[in-house]
Amino acid sequence: MSAIFNFQSLLTVVLLLICTCAYIRSMFPSLLDRNKVGLLGTFWKCARIGERKSPFVAVFCIMMAARILFIS
């Protein structure tokens, strides 16, 4: 089943995208900062969400991991 049709998988993909973009921006800031608009601007926006909302993103990652490990 595709991640588009499974809500839990979609949330996992979105969280991983946010965390990955924030990590890439922390290691190579110029890579994402030069693309702030357009399709590649989505990755810059995900990095900003990961940086500014990092406590919330961390809590959601922990909750998702616990759900995958113990409930699924």
Please state the CA-atom Rg, rounded to the nearest Å: 13 Å
Helical amount: over 70%
* Unreliably modeled segments: none
According to DSSP, the number of beta strands is: 0
The largest sheet is:
none
In words, what does this structure look like?
It is a single chain. With 72 residues, this protein is mainly α. The chain contains 4 helices and no strands. It has helices spanning 7-27, 29-33, 41-52, 54-71. Helix 1 crosses helix 3 (41-52) and helix 1 (7-27) crosses helix 4. The radius of gyration is 13 Å and the shape is globular.
Core attributes:
single chain; 72 residues; mainly alpha; globular; 4 helices
Any chance you could write out the topology, listing elements then pairs?
Elements: H1 7-27, H2 29-33, H3 41-52, H4 54-71
Helix pairs in contact: 1-3, 1-4
Short description:
With 72 residues, the chain is mainly alpha-helical.
